[in-house]
């Protein structure tokens, strides 16, 4: 059991020393992956499309209130 503990401590110190002496990784920002066209739409895009549709469908550019059910 004692040898196992000594071996683990040596490995731990070795790893710690290696992590201190190893060159730091390059910090370049990779280019983000391209967006996939999955057919989903962002909420703000959907609201903008609704506003555009409502603006073009009403004659004075105002959004009309919903009609009351009969």
What's the gist of this structure?
The protein starts with a helix and ends in a 13-residue tail after the last helix. Helix content is 50%, strand content 0%. The chain is mostly helical.
Verbal overview:
The chain is built from two helices and no strands. The mean pLDDT is 80. It has 70 residues and is an all-alpha fold.
Helix-strand pattern = HH
Mean pLDDT: 80
Q: Report the helical percentage.
A: 40-55%
The shape, in one word, is: elongated
Strand content: under 5%
Distance between the termini: 85 Å
Would you report the number of β strands? 0
Indicate the radius of gyration in whole angstroms: 31 Å
Helical segment count: 2
Secondary-structure content class: mainly alpha
Please describe the biggest sheet, giving its number of strands, its sense, and whether it closes into a barrel.
none
- Poorly predicted regions are none
Describe the structure using short key phrases.
mainly alpha; 70 residues; 2 helices; elongated
What's the topology here?
Layout: H1 2-21, H2 43-57
